[in-house]
Amino acid sequence: MPKRKDEPGFSRRSFLKTVGASGVAAGVLAQGAKVDAQPNVMGPGAVPVTLNVNGQTLRLELEPRVTLLDALRMRADLTGNKRGCDRGACGACTMIVDGRTVYACSTLAIEVQGKKIRTVDGLASSSGQLHPVQQAFCDKDALMCGFCTPGFVMASVGLLEQHPNPTPEQIRKGLDGNICRCGTFTRIFEAVSSVKGVRRG
Amino acid sequence: MAKPPFAEAAGGEQQAPQQPPPAPQQQQGGGRGGAPQQPPVDPRYNWSSTPKTVVGSRVKRLDGPDKVSGRAKYTFDIKRPGMVYARAVRSPYPHAKVVSIDFSAAERVPGFKTSLIVRDPKDPKTSVVLYQGDEIAAVAADTEEHAIDAARAVKVQYEVLPAVISVESALAGRAPEGGFPNGNVRAANTQEVGDVAAGFAAAAHTLEQTYSTHVITHACMEAHGTVCEWDGDKLTAWVSTQGVSSARDNFAGGLGIPQTQVRVICQYMGGGFGSKLQLGPEGLICARPAKQAGVPVKFTLDRKEEHLVTGNRPSAAAKIKAGVSADGKITAFDAESWGTGGAGSNAGFPLPYIYHTTPADNRRRAHKDVFINTGLQRPMRAPGHPHGSFITEIMMDELADLVKMDPVEFRLRNLPPEAPNAMWGSYLREGAEAFGWSKRHPTGDTTPGSIKTGMGVAICTWGGGGRGPSPAHCEIASDGSVTMRLGSQDIGTGQRTLVAIVTADALGLQPSQITPEIGDTQYGVSAGSGGSTTAASTSPGIRIAALKALDALKEKVAPALGVTADALVAAGGKIQVRDTPSKSLSWADACKRIGTQPITADAEWQPGMTSANTSGVQFAEAKVDIKTGIVRVTRVLAIQDCGLVLNQLTAESQVYGGVIGSLNFALFEDRILDRRTGQMVNPNMEWYLLAGMSDVPHIDVRLKNMPERGVVGIGEPPTVPTAAAVALAVRNAIGATVRSLPLTPAKILETLTQKA
Question: Which pTM value belongs to this model?
């Protein structure tokens, strides 16, 4: 996919991964930044950021380091999606950006300008009717404390929009990026297996 | 009745292991106690006084729609006008003296608001930190990013002190002093019952082995967090807690203000598993800056802090000598055990677990608590039991092999007598049949190829039970609305829904017609949700309050139906004459007679509607690749009782969750310490391994409903035996015994190498 001009050279997730991999990588990264020449420098102070979230335009003033998750949670009161690990490992922050599931804790808000962002807050209809995935989670008791639930719901929606009739293996693989500490996996599997009629995204 | 094991760990409480074995007496709440001996409850209120219309059915969570849509507001989601964010400065060293703290650079960070010293360098009593992550200071700033910047800018000078990292070196006396009040090792009194030497003399075989379990952390999805807002001297605190009442008391005590000046709110919380029963230091680190700065403060721990300082499950180890007779009966048990709960916290666990010696009770146990420079333990789902279970059950299969006996048969010969709260024998027989146990091969799968399959079995118990006062307040208004109000909280178990179920059942209504009001100290004082005691503690008060309110409603309705109040019953959304159901008023019409003043009724927990102790059995099947050491658990069967089942749907979910939690304990999660620096090397969620969807086996749940026993509790028992059953399935598959958890591929390969 061609990179947009104003897109920074790396995501927070790839940065964390690189630093996590080894100390040497930090040097490599610094070198790479040099080679990448003159990117569109933003910050360190707040910059205007425009986001398209759940069909609405949000205009925010954010430091470039602010993640999509924190921007929506702390600056727009869209608190449905949660922060569990803050490193792209638990999936509680899962949102759908241009049809693909992303870890919003590891995506910078400035990276996703101009893209269609969907969060759990906007999933039910405006009249409050639950999405079939949300209804299935309620019917099958696929939640306990509920903190991981928004991320699982979004990951399930993302999966079903790609594979409306998933195999058991596709469900397992599709949701392997999410963690539930209460242990609701069995029920979530039942819930996602029961959903019919999600339109291909 | 079961003989009490040594050093029972009480649910949700820390208990020193040097205490003598508890006398066989009734024990309300927590770990397994004796048989219940309760006076009968007023028969008008007991569970059997009305037909069960809702209790025991499958009721969806009332708050499900709020949770799946993101509308449910957790503490982490609370935002107050003018709110600022706090961040702690924590020790990178496991043992150090704080020499100085310099906030000057932090104060220059944009948005800086206030600072707080937790470890005063001038105070010798508080200036020493005992573990990595120990609180030094805190700052608050306008955004979370600025608070992180400010915390990083705080300059702390330390005098680094030698630390105790390894339990083994502490036990061997080779470790430096870790700075603990009782030294590095505290030995408990040896407990002894019967004639252990005579027991061994009667044995045909003797087993001597050492077994151990590791430290894990609670890893709640929602980190510990608090929002504090002061109005003059009154504090309102939103806390991610398992006990709003205890949090209120902890705030009042820590701040030196009256309990009545503190209101604690927790409508939704993202998991606690025992680590949120008491308000930790993080509570005051939020409340104090809020008072200083005069604005609401939010303090949410990050994932690393969560691993380091909000509790952990202690390790456990035991060097065991056990004798077994030729006919498969354990004749004597002798154990030297130890464990660590970190810097100054104890690490008790029951041992031997459930099984007993025959013909006489011949047991000895010596226990040592080892203190190391790591975060303090907090109770974790069934404290002590998963450790005692693992150690005992692995020993059981090794003993069974000594006498060449099937593990189920061997267990049947060593169980306490069957009783309503001790049903292991029946469950073992039922489970063996259902699981296909007869197809289990002797130890070691001889099938060609690298994938080996095996089966294992383990049993569990837990006390649960109810305790008072646990008051509940019922209100019925003239528009027919019903509110049940109590200071309890829903920690993810479905308590909010249980409140509605029990109320609706008593009033002949549906749960959706009830408004449960919980999670707020304004609704009264209630016990913390720990020890699997919440349902049993609160449901009697709820039911009695609802029935008393109904009595008052019947009095108002009786004249209209031309009968006396005692001729009326509530059923199917109506108040009707018992003998002529056609004479009735709808609930709405009945309530119109209430008038402007709503009917209210209050009640508390009463003995006789709840009892203590549960029993459960789990079977597991595992496949092990002996080339890679990777274990895949394929099937688990869980048979579990919990007394009267209130909500079949959520009770089953508790069992699924318990099994998966124990699977994590068996195979994946592990707090790994750097042996030199004492720092945790995996304080995150990518290297602190937790099961994902692909790791979860097929789980069959058989929940045993025992209405005659009243409510007991289900949260903890199912998380006890899975780990042992899995370890025994692995043993059965590979023909070698891994005697410590977790069952990592490396450990399995090492065990196989030693066997070869």
Answer: 0.93
